[in-house]
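Quick one, probably user error.
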């Protein structure tokens, strides 16, 4: 069995959010569509990282030639869900020249003076780039909704607005890959505990994370509404069980590879006479 065949179902099919799917039904410890186990992961991840890197560089090379297309990976998930691990172990396999990483934290005073999509628009990937949003405009219907940071009619209007915004992006040539990562409360507790136990992980720990953890029922509602209202044909959500880090990383790698493959990229042809250049070089 070759390594990619360990996938019995395409992650793009099996992880796509479907109308009626409920968050409480997600088995966060499962590995949908994957027939292997943890032992298979390292070799497969290396193999697929290489494939991703090749396609990502091809996108970048085309961008250098004026291709306006780009890919945008949107990562959402509660603290410890593994967003950082995706950035490091999946996107990190790519050529940094073609990666545009942006994390979105609490808006600055300047950002708060603008429409919530203002800071998002400024960070969009340009032609040839793979953009990564570590949190995103979805915080404006998640944390903002849970903490009543604006009135319900204000956040309530954002779902349609976000759909229209993403439609505009896809029509302008950005393929959007939206990944919602879910860990169980027990797994989150374990990961927070690991962070507290290890001084090298203290930088990842934020006391506020425990307050958000206590609000999980409200977050679950907000995540459910997000999935129900903003999973569209042009920008569907993928729901990724994330208790097994090795699985979520493999799955997101496949989602990115499939998206890049759908662009039907090839290496840009030389815009000079190769033969003539070889001749010149020989005597240079
Ligand atoms: P992380 O927790 O992802 O490692 P940070 O420590 O920068 O990153 O925390 C980001 C925090 O910013 C999160 O608690 C998140 O909910 C919050 N945040 C992001 N976007 C917004 C927003 N639009 N309004 C309010 N809070 C936000």
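Nope, works fine. Designed sequence:
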């Amino acid at each position: 069995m070759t390594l990619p065949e360990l996938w019995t179902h395409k992650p793009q099919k099996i992880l796509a959010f479907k109308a009626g799917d409920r968050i409480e039904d997600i088995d966060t410890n499962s590995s949908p569509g994957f027939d292997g186990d943890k032992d298979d992961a390292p070799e497969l991840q290396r193999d697929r990282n290489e494939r991703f890197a090749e396609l990502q560089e091809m996108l970048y090379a085309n961008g250098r030639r004026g291709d306006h297309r780009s890919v945008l990976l949107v990562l959402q998930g509660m603290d410890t869900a593994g967003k950082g691990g995706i950035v490091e172990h999946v996107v990190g396999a790519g050529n940094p020249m073609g990666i545009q990483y942006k994390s979105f934290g609490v808006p600055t005073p300047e950002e708060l003076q603008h429409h919530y999509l203002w800071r998002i628009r400024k960070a969009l990937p340009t032609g040839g780039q793979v953009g990564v949003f570590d949190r995103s405009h979805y915080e404006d219907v998640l944390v903002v909704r849970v903490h009543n940071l604006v009135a319900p009619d204000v956040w309530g209007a954002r779902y349609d607005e976000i759909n229209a915004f993403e439609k505009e992006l896809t029509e302008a040539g950005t393929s959007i890959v939206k990944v919602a990562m879910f860990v169980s409360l027990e797994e989150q507790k374990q990961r927070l505990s690991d962070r507290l136990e290890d001084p090298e992980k203290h930088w990842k720990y934020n006391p506020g994370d425990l307050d958000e953890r206590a609000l999980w029922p409200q977050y679950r509602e907000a995540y459910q509404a997000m999935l129900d209202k903003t999973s569209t044909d042009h920008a569907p959500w993928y729901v990724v069980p994330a208790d097994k880090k090795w699985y979520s990383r493999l799955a997101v790698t496949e989602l990115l590879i499939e998206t890049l493959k759908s662009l039907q990229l090839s290496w840009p042809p030389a815009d000079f006479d190769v033969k003539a250049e070889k001749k010149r070089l020989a005597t240079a």
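The domain at 4-282 is CATH 3.40.50.300 (Rossmann fold).
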